[in-house]
Amino acid sequence: MSGAWLATGAFAGSLAAMAAFGLAMDRHFEDVFGRGRAPGRWRLPLRVAGGACLVAGLLASLALQGRTVGWVLWLGVLTAAALATAGALSYAPRAVPWIAGGAAGVLSLACALAAASGG
Q: What percent of the chain has pLDDT over 90?
């Protein structure tokens, strides 16, 4: 059962990271929060959170598939998360903060449940 949680955590971490990196950009921040607004003081925390979520997703992939296949799994999950984020930023930009928050919550839950089940 911990394998399913690790796979979920890998995708959720990548999705949260891509959303955070997207929101750290001026163009996407304006699309989400209105024209004339810039990330300003939120740019660095968004980038740090995105990096932390990327690392968490990578660690989940490596724990699930090992050091050889785990990297390939992570790159595939990262690609899927980037496509999902690009689609959300294009068609429903105001939903991106909710998607990122939900993905971060799922990442936390998946990591806790994987750790509790011995994964």
A: 58
